[in-house]
């Protein structure tokens, strides 16, 4: 049977009737040339590098050992190692069930999210200076901002802390924004490298854009103190820098949602214009719903209207609008005093469980007589312990003990439970037996990485290795 393409069309007048053209597909090429072109389209596509978190999770799932532990995952787990649906979420779901899901819900979601980040009484909402839009979770909020930055500050770079969540590098890379890094972590002392951070902020050209983790820094679990935030904010004023806060763990640093916004408060009190990406993935356990908010504090209402219109337009071409169900859940929880109180209580419960596990794990390692100084397990905050374990330790833990984590030695404390903490402590002790007290040191570049646009198309591991100072395993920092 031959295929015909009939290009004839109905003409209003018989005289203008176009000639009937019939194309015989059969005559358009030989079988050989057709099959060649059919197979030739995507020959140039290399396999993308394995996703670091999926790699860890895949290995964990494939392992049949009953003692296996997954410490790679960046989401909360209960003391049985199970994902949790918060009670407030269950109750909110019952309440919104059957509600008319109109576009109006966006309005209250953004308002409630902004109040949560900027403060109930900050007055900024009344002044209508905040341009806020719903986003596809924290990742989507960062991506939207990166795109906005490229369009409206096309000459600018983004300064990322070293280390940071590895996806930050890829988000700004794909938005074609050049990247620089600023120093954050001192591997030797396992503390914030405050002097180096201030130096890099000072030496950046005036009016640079910086990404800051306002609380529970991923992966180091180390935040500046309030006094240090004040100094950072002051220096930002002097240098006229723009702070973009990526707040993926509000509540997870101190267990108190309001206390965790102290960095934003300091900057707002100093009169900065700021940007903020919020995620409800971790603190409401809404990983599958992809709920987030991007907000930009502007100089006045007119500017906020313009910025918001541009953010909407960028999102429209990328994905239209985010799904509404998760946003409805969040706005219900944030606007209902009882549900909000329940949520605050549940966040505290998650954080208390994690910090209890820190104390237990540390105590067990001390009891075992470990030669390594593990104090950082209890000093660090948030969901992670940036352990300092080297890739060879991580390999051994997986091979011999069926314990999985990312190659940068970051342990998700949410995966530690009363049932597995003894086994974990023993394994950590075993693989570090030959190490001295201060030998668990993460190797990070000593100086900030110079401005560069990361490889845009093929992520060849050689290019990544070069970026990560010869150690491609640095890219195992994940969610
Ligand atoms: C620092 C940081 N920002 C943003 C995100 C994005 O999270 P999500 O897109 O799941 O909300 C994460 C996730 O792990 C993160 O660690």
TrEMBL record:
Pfam families: Aminotran_1_2 (PF00155)
Record-level Gene Ontology MF annotations: L-aspartate:2-oxoglutarate aminotransferase activity; pyridoxal phosphate binding
UniProt EC number: 2.6.1.1
Annotated transmembrane regions: none
Catalysed reactions, semicolon-separated: L-aspartate + 2-oxoglutarate = oxaloacetate + L-glutamate
Domain Aminotransferase class I/classII large: 67-428
Domain of life of the source: Eukaryota
Cofactor(s) in the UniProt record: pyridoxal 5'-phosphate
CDD domains: AAT_like (cd00609)
Keyword Protein biosynthesis: no
Single GO cellular component term: mitochondrion
Keywords: Aminotransferase, Pyridoxal phosphate, Transferase
Keyword Transferase: yes
Top class in the EC scheme: transferase
Gene Ontology BP terms: amino acid metabolic process
Similarity field: Belongs to the class-I pyridoxal-phosphate-dependent aminotransferase family.
UniProt miscellaneous comment: In eukaryotes there are cytoplasmic, mitochondrial and chloroplastic isozymes.
Subunit-structure text: Homodimer.
The protein's name: Aspartate aminotransferase
Species: Stephania cephalantha
């Amino acid at each position: 049977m031959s295929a015909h393409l009939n290009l004839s069309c109905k003409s209003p007048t018989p005289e203008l009737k176009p000639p009937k053209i019939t194309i015989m597909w059969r005559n358009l090429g030989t079988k050989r040339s057709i099959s060649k072109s059919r197979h030739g389209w995507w020959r140039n596509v290399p396999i993308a590098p394995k996703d670091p978190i999926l790699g860890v999770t895949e290995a964990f799932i494939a392992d049949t050992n009953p003692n296996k532990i997954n410490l790679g995952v960046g989401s909360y787990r209960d003391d049985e190692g199970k994902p949790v649906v918060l009670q407030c979420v269950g109750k909110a779901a019952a309440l919104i069930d059957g509600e008319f899901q109109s576009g109006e819900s966006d309005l209250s979601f953004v308002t409630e999210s902004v109040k949560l980040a900027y403060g109930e009484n900050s007055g900024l909402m009344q002044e209508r200076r905040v341009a806020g839009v719903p986003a596809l979770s924290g990742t989507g909020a960062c991506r939207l901002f990166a795109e906005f930055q490229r369009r409206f500050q096309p000459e600018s770079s983004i300064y990322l802390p070293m280390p940071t969540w590895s996806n930050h590098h890829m988000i700004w890379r794909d938005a074609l924004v050049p990247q620089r890094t600023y120093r954050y972590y001192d591997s030797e002392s396992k503390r914030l490298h405050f002097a180096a951070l201030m130096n890099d902020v000072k030496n950046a050209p005036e009016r640079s854009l910086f990404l800051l983790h306002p609380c529970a820094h991923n992966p180091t679990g180390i935040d500046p103190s309030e006094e240090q935030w004040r100094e950072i904010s002051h220096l930002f004023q002097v240098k006229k820098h723009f702070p973009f806060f990526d707040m993926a763990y509000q509540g997870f640093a101190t267990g108190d949602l309001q206390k965790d916004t102290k960095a934003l408060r300091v900057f707002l009190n100093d009169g900065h214009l700021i940007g903020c990406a919020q995620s409800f993935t971790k603190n409401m356990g809404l990983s599958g719903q992809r709920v987030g908010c991007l907000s930009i504090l502007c100089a006045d209402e007119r500017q906020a209207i313009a910025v918001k219109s541009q953010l909407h337009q960028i999102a429209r071409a990328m994905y239209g609008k985010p799904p509404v169900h998760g946003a409805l859940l969040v706005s219900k929880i944030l606007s209902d005093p009882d549900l909000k109180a329940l949520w605050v209580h549940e966040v505290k419960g998650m954080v208390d469980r994690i910090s209890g596990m820190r104390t237990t794990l540390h105590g067990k390692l001390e009891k075992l007589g470990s030669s390594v100084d593990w104090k950082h397990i209890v000093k660090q905050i948030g969901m992670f312990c940036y352990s300092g374990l080297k890739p060879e330790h991580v390999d051994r833990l997986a091979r011999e003990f069926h314990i999985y984590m990312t190659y940068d030695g970051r342990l998700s404390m949410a995966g530690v439970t009363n049932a597995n903490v003894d086994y974990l402590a023993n394994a950590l002790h075993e693989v570090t037996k030959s190490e001295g007290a201060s030998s668990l040191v993460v190797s990070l570049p000593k100086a900030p990485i110079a401005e560069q646009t990361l490889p845009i198309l093929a992520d060849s591991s050689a290019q990544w290795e070069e970026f990560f100072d010869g150690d491609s395993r640095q890219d195992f920092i994940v969610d």
